[in-house]
Design goal:
The complex is a heterodimer.
Chain A lengths: L4 H11 L4 H11 L12 H18 L1 H4 L13 H6 L16 H6 L16 H12 L10 H8 L5 H4 L25 H12 L10 H13 L5 H9 L5 H11 L1 H14 L17 H13 L4 H10 L9 H10 L1 H4 L10 H21 L18 H12 L1 E2 L1 E3 L5 E2 L1 E3 L3 H36 L15 H20 L5 E3 L2 E2 L5 E4 L7 E5 L22 H8 L7 H14 L20 H13 L4 H9 L2 H4 L6 H6 L12 E2 L2 H11 L49 H5 L18 H9 L1 H16 L5 H13 L5 H18 L6 H18 L1 H4 E2 L1
Antiparallel strand pairs in A: 1-6, 2-3, 4-5, 7-8, 9-10
Helix pairs in contact in A: 2-7, 3-7, 11-13, 13-26, 14-15, 16-17, 16-23, 19-20, 21-22, 24-25, 24-26, 32-35, 33-34, 34-35
Chain B lengths: L1 E2 L7 H9 L37 E7 L13 H5 L27 E4 L4 E4 L3 H4 L5 E8 L5 H10 L9 H9 L9 E4 L23 E3 L21 H22 L3 H24 L6 H6 L5 H18 L4 E6 L12 H25 L6 E7 L2 E7 L3 E5 L3 E7 L6 E3 L1 E2 L6 E3 L2 E2 H11 L9 E3 L2 E3 L15
Parallel strand pairs in B: 2-8, 2-9, 5-13, 5-16, 6-7, 6-8
Antiparallel strand pairs in B: 3-4, 5-12, 9-12, 10-11, 14-15, 17-18
Classes of the chains: A mainly alpha, B alpha/beta.
Chain lengths: 833, 472
């Protein structure tokens, strides 16, 4: 059991190049000196080195790794340099050729490192080198203890590493004192104001009510406030007016739709595989709806994570619906892009695991764990030992049905007992009918044989010779089978995770499954674990244990990372400005006490995200205006201390959704799939025909997310890539966005619809029409000047159109369409103050 | 919602800027991501390379699938001789599909030009240009499946999402014509990685390739998305943009100094110019009869790819940095697991004349000397037979060629074994191929890096050597 099938195969493939001659050499040289790293080599061994190894190194290696040139920083002409190794890491592990890069390189085991590059060494030369490493790399007049020392190189000083800010457990800091107490609405303000006062900056005055409700409605729901909602807020003079708005918005199902999209960015959600074989993830939408519902229900964040990593392993569910919800949640692990036609199946499997590790690391912990696949992490104290500790958990998890090209991912059955029962009944009936067919065929064949006598040979297709009655019967039975099969209900499924054989993985040297090192137990990264590490159960993959560790009170990263993400998604910038990287190369927090306070508070409040939103939105920090202040700008030009509200552009989805909603064209239906490609079918394979349509009026979150070919408008406006997870979308301003606003059918159609709606209200004067339009689009009334300018523009347009359109009604209609389109294209429509 | 970089100006600066209008048109975009270096300057403005470049731009003629090297540019007399015999050495550890014994090439080879390089009768027209080609016979990759190999060729990685070669090049060098995209891919395939093959991945969005149609669209119909307005006349649209500018200026004045809002005004002007210029480049009505003939536009079989090649030249002469042309017949492609004769025959017929036309045309216009033309596919094919008359994928050894832009002309570099299975001499891995292209463009592949997710990424990952042997 210890040597698992896969590992064993690899071991065998590794062992293949060994010639029998080598085995003899082993016996000769190794028996007495293993493990001999530190023993001074004997004469025989030195002789072996001088006669076999040194000449070989001179002949094949010195040119590029000698005194003149040191490619990849490697030099092999002195013992000191051999011990030091090169950029690829230590050259050899004394006594362990199978873990030594020198040996895997000369064996051409990994495509990434084949030495010498021009031509493989002879079998004998490889055997000699292998023997040399096996017997401890004896070298004349050398300090052999250097080798042992080099073995320990790269191990981290864990205690020291843990001093890094984000690796320390979260402590709730005291709320700092401030001078201007009256500005403070809740502790968040106190942290912010404290730093502003230190910098001698005065925070901006509160935003006006129109700006505030527009900002907050977009922020929570991704949609603009309706004129009625604005009016209600303006007319509500009570001190709780804004609180009421926030609570109403948090209770809206549109909150879940909008905030799920944030989560989907870091869950690299997509409805297709992408990468090489772009087949439909036809059940992924269930995961998307799960996220929407979880957020709307305010599912505690700790449970939310546990379900996604180990929903199939949680305590028995109270009912089928809950069980299915948890199974669907594990889709998180399976949603990544996979190379499904990788010819090397083991490589495919390890690549899929790598993608999962990278996602778990970056999205949940802000740690680039994936970096440790090939070597210890260069910047963070994550070792290859840690990486393969997690890889073992995922290797013990079933994500794929098989790895043969084109590989097939696993889906969990979501059937209820009743459904399964009905299906079983059908199977029973089908079986019975098929048995009747078989029985009749058998009896007819026997009859024919009997009648034909001994020499009779039954024809290959005997049925036409059956009796008329039998043929009719058969036809009837078969028709029944066909109709039963047609009526047999399909049981719904969803992609996700399940258990498989529990296994520990060996370290893959340089990330290759062809060069395996020592096997490591499944475990969590050492530096992040502040408790005594218990060995993982051998009965389960360990996903549940891993998830429980993630959401334990002591975990230094998970609560900080999500608190920072929530802050980022509200304000457009994180307290840690690299929300996906809390490691050494990530940014330091601009206000660590505030972040830690929110992280601790989140856990105290039972991991409720809605409570966190509420706290943030009801702060004065959120409610500031975007008013410009020359003095503050000189001190803090990037507004890191938050002395005013930043100007923000809407994200791609909100731009599309608000164009639809303002033009009365949005279908606000919740959930479901709009993908018109069946599960596992190619979105497009050899032919580049795009079978997916985006021509729906549903909210953007429901549009299919096709990796490799995202909806064009989304790509233009910095939508997440859907393959590379991204918790910090950028906001570019490029000319193709302008082309979209000017030329796309989507904008043209919406502006036409809007123009039609406005013009149909014939009782309104042109001035009133303009007022209504601006109110719908901007949430405010136009100034007198704006009305005047707009009327002037409409008039000029009509004149301009005279040569093109003789019908005055159509001319007016067209002018209004162009006018409405200009409003959609304007900065005010897509930028929030 | 994303936050905007708020570049701040003193009042005087702002006035100065306003005095020259809100244009500031060179500013295509402002980035607020990790590309701090480019903050405040146009990410697509021409940039100095690391050293004097030999080539200023690239035209990549991509053959979707794997053109067979033994049947085109890698002449193997031994293969003819041992037809039907078993391969006398081991096949690779992983193979895409099982293959049988050696299969000779059904095409004859002839020596061409002063260089006397052998080319098969599949490419009679390109063969006429052989003295301009630098044929690399020793390419090798790591992936035997279409998707992986295609991604590897375009992005350097067959397992992860990485920026494509064209994105790296425009990231490194910017582009010369700000009215056109810097990286254009004409009729690309949407299969096997699709957009990933021209995507900027984690590089900033302006470095994303701009597709002109896709493989399912005829070259004549290929267009950049949203480039055309189907409902307004140019005059009316001009009026609309003027009004829009006014709205946007007024909005900007109310929000305080903000670079992005200023840039945004510029993008509408640029868009207006782009939608003028792109159709002009695509409009080949001004080309002479002789030129059209040279590209095979007068023949049905070559007209489509010929038009792509001609557009490539027109983009190249207008300063586009990286142009990819794809030959990706929807049904057949360069993927003859069976029916080699028929399939390769058809494919070669479609591209041979247009490619030769492009080479000759570039040369006569003096563009070839600083334009690097690259031809090739995802991998080669096996010298052994798949089924009766096909060849399987072979990433172990295959051929691509380069022309112009500082490579040796009339030259063969590297070699495969006597049958063409493995690259043996002067082996050039895909990473080396990338390193060499960047070198020709004046960039050190180890220095062209971008920091993302905690480390510095390169097109060549941690590998790649410049093949100095191909440099003129």
């Amino acid at each position: 059991m210890a040597m698992h099938a896969n590992f064993r195969d690899q071991f065998i493939s590794f062992a293949k190049p060994f010639s029998t001659g080598l085995m003899v050499a082993f016996v000769l040289l190794s028996a007495t000196c293993l493990p001999a790293a530190e023993k001074q080599p004997n004469q025989k061994q030195i002789q072996f080195f001088e006669s076999k190894i040194r000449p070989l190194l001179i002949k094949h290696c010195y040119d590029c790794h000698g005194s003149d040139e040191q490619e990849s920083g490697l030099r092999v002409d002195t013992f000191k340099h051999i011990v030091k190794g090169g950029k690829a890491g230590a050259l050899l592990v004394p006594g362990k050729p199978e873990q030594s890069i020198l040996i895997t390189a000369v064996n051409y085991q990994s495509a990434d490192l084949k030495m010498p590059p021009e031509e493989k060494l002879s079998k004998q030369e490889i055997a000699d080198l292998t023997t040399w490493v096996k017997i401890g790399a004896p070298y004349p007049n050398a300090d052999m203890s250097l080798l042992r020392a080099s073995k320990n190189k790269g191990k981290f000083d864990i205690k020291k590493e843990r001093e890094f800010w984000s690796f320390q457990p979260v402590k709730k800091p005291a709320v700092p004192a401030v001078k201007n107490r009256s500005w403070v609405k809740n502790p968040i303000d106190q942290f912010i104001l404290h730093d502003l006062e230190q910098a001698k900056i005065t925070p901006a005055k509160p935003a006006d009510k129109r700006t505030l409700i527009r900002r907050t409605t977009f922020d929570l729901t991704g949609l603009p406030p309706t004129p009625q909602e604005i009016d209600d807020f303006l007319n509500d003079q009570s001190p709780q007016a804004f609180e009421k708005v926030v609570d109403r918005l948090l209770a809206s199902p549109h909150y879940g739709e909008h905030w799920a999209r944030h989560w989907l960015d870091i869950a690299r959600y997509a409805d297709s595989n992408g990468l090489d074989e772009n087949v439909a993830y036809g059940t992924a939408w269930k995961y998307r709806d799960y996220v929407v519902n979880a957020l709307n229900k305010d599912k505690p964040y700790d449970l939310f994570l546990k379900e996604q990593l180990a929903g199939d392993l949680l305590e028995p569910a109270k009912d089928v619906a809950e069980r299915n919800e948890r199974l669907i949640a594990t889709g998180f692990l399976s949603l990544g892009p996979k190379v499904l036609a990788e010819v090397d199946e083991t490589k495919m499997e390890m690549d899929i695991i790598d993608e999962q590790i990278n996602t778990i690391g970056v999205s949940l912990m802000g740690m680039t764990l994936g970096c440790a696949r090939c070597h210890d992490h260069k910047f963070d104290p994550i070792s290859a030992y840690d990486y393969y500790g997690i890889a073992g958990i995922l290797k013990s998890t079933k994500i794929m049905e098989h790895y043969k090209k084109v590989a097939r991912w696993h889906e969990n059955s979501l059937g209820t007992d009743a459904e399964l029962k009905v299906q079983a009944e059908y199977d029973q009936k089908i079986k019975a009918e098929e048995a009747k067919v078989a029985a009749l065929v058998k009896s007819e064949n026997e009859r024919l044989q009997k009648e034909g006598g001994k020499d009779f040979k039954l024809p290959a297709k005997p049925e036409p010779t059956y009796s008329k009655e039998a043929q009719a019967e058969l036809k009837k039975f078969r028709a029944k089978v066909a109709s039963l099969k047609k009526a047999r209900p399909e049981i719904p499924t969803a992609l996700g995770a399940a258990e498989r054989e529990t296994i520990d993985l060996p370290i893959h040297i340089r990330g290759s499954h062809l060069t395996l090192g020592e096997t490591v137990p499944r475990h969590v990264p050492v530096v992040l674990n502040h408790q005594q590490q218990k060995p993982f159960s051998k009965k389960q993959s360990g996903r549940l244990e891993f998830a429980e560790w993630l959401v334990s009170r002591d975990h230094p990263l998970v609560s900080r990372v999500i608190a920072n993400r929530v802050w980022r998604w509200h304000f457009g910038k994180g307290i840690v400005s690299t929300p996906d990287n809390f490691g050494r190369l990530g940014a330091k927090p601009t206000n660590q006490p505030l972040l830690d306070w929110m992280a601790a508070n989140l856990m105290e409040e039972g991991w409720s995200l809605k409570k966190l939103h509420r706290m943030i939105l009801l702060s004065n920090t959120w409610q500031m205006s975007s008013e410009w202040d020359e003095k503050a700008a000189t001190i803090d030009p990037d507004n890191l201390l938050m002395w005013r509200a930043d100007l923000r552009r809407l994200d791609a989805e909100s731009i599309r959704d608000s164009i639809l909603v303002v033009s009365d064209g949005l279908d606000a239906k919740l959930g479901g799939s709009l993908l018109n490609v069946n599960n596992r079918e190619f979105v497009f394979n050899h032919e580049s025909k795009d079978g997916v349509t985006y021509d729906f009026n549903r909210r953007s979150i429901y549009l299919p997310v096709i990796r490799n070919h995202l909806f064009g408008m989304f790509m233009l406006f910095d939508y997440a890539d859907a393959s590379v997870l991204n918790g910090d979308r950028s906001s570019t301003t490029v000319a193709p966005q302008a082309l979209f606003m000017l030329n796309s059918h989507l904008v043209e159609g919406a502006s036409q619809r809007l123009a039609d709606t406005i013009l149909s209200q014939t009782a309104l004067s042109p001035e009133q029409k303009i007022e209504q339009l601006m109110l719908k689009a901007y949430g405010r009334l136009p100034s007198e000047r704006e009305v005047k300018k707009s009327l002037q523009f409409l008039e000029e347009l009509e004149q301009e159109l005279q040569s093109e359109e003789s019908d005055s009604q159509k001319r007016m209609n067209r002018s209004w369409q162009v006018f409405c389109q200009s409003i959609f294209g304007s900065s005010e429509f897509i930028y929030l103050r | 919602m994303s936050i905007l970089p708020q570049s701040l100006f003193s009042r005087r600066d702002l006035l100065k800027k306003s005095a020259v209008g809100f244009g500031n048109l060179a500013l295509l975009s402002m980035l607020n991501d990790e590309a701090k270096a480019s903050k405040g300057q146009d990410p697509l403005a021409p940039k100095e390379p690391h050293f004097t470049p030999r080539a200023k731009r690239v035209i990549f003629l991509f053959m979707k699938g794997g053109p067979s090297h033994m049947d085109t540019f890698d002449y193997k007399p031994q293969l003819q001789k041992y037809d039907g015999k078993p391969l006398p050495f081991d096949k690779p550890r992983v193979q895409f599909a099982p293959t049988g014994n050696l299969l000779k090439s059904p095409w004859k080879f002839k020596q061409y030009g002063e260089s006397g390089i052998h080319v098969s009768e599949l490419f009679p027209n390109v063969a006429e240009c052989v003295d301009d080609l630098c044929i690399i016979n020793s390419l090798h990759g790591t992936n035997a499946a279409h998707g992986g190999a295609l991604l590897k060729l375009h992005t350097g990685s067959d397992a992860f999402v990485r920026p494509s070669m064209g994105s790296w090049v425009t990231y490194g060098l910017g582009t010369e014509n700000q009215n056109l995209p810097g990286f254009i891919t004409i009729c690309p395939t949407l299969a096997h990685g699709g957009v990933k093959n021209w995507s900027s991945a984690f590089l900033p969005a302006p470095y994303q390739g701009t597709p002109l149609g896709n493989a399912a669209v005829a070259a004549e119909q290929a267009q950049i998305e949203f480039i055309k307005n189907g409902f307004l006349s140019r005059k009316v649209q001009r009026k609309q943009i003027d009004f829009l500018n006014e709205l946007n200026r007024q909005h900007q004045q109310q929000t305080g100094p903000n670079q992005v809002l200023e840039d945004r005004i510029g993008t509408f002007e640029l868009a207006f110019r782009m939608q003028e210029e792109v159709p002009q480049v695509q409009d080949i009505s001004g080309e002479t009869e002789a030129t059209r003939k040279m590209y095979g536009l007068d023949e049905e079989k070559t007209a489509d790819f010929g038009r792509q090649c001609l557009m490539a030249r027109r983009f190249a002469e207008r300063g586009v940095r990286f142009i990819q042309v794809s030959h990706s017949d929807q049904k057949v492609q360069w993927d003859q697991h069976g029916n080699l004769l028929e399939g390769h025959g058809k494919n070669a017929k479609e591209v041979d004349k247009p490619i030769a036309g492009l080479l000759k045309d570039l040369k006569q216009r003096g563009l070839l000397k600083d334009t690097l033309v690259v031809w090739g596919g995802e991998f080669g094919r096996t010298p052994t037979a798949q089924g009766k008359n096909g060849r399987d994928h072979n990433p172990e050894g295959f051929t691509m060629w380069m022309a112009g832009g500082g490579v040796k002309a009339g030259f063969q570099y590297g070699a495969t074994d006597e049958f063409g299975y493995y690259a043996t001499k002067d082996k050039m891995h895909i990473h080396d191929f990338h390193a060499t292209i960047l070198h020709l463009l004046g960039m050190n592949h180890e220095k062209l890096t971008y920091r993302y997710a905690g480390r510095d990424f390169r097109l060549t990952d941690v590998a790649g050597h410049v093949a100095h042997g191909v440099l003129a």
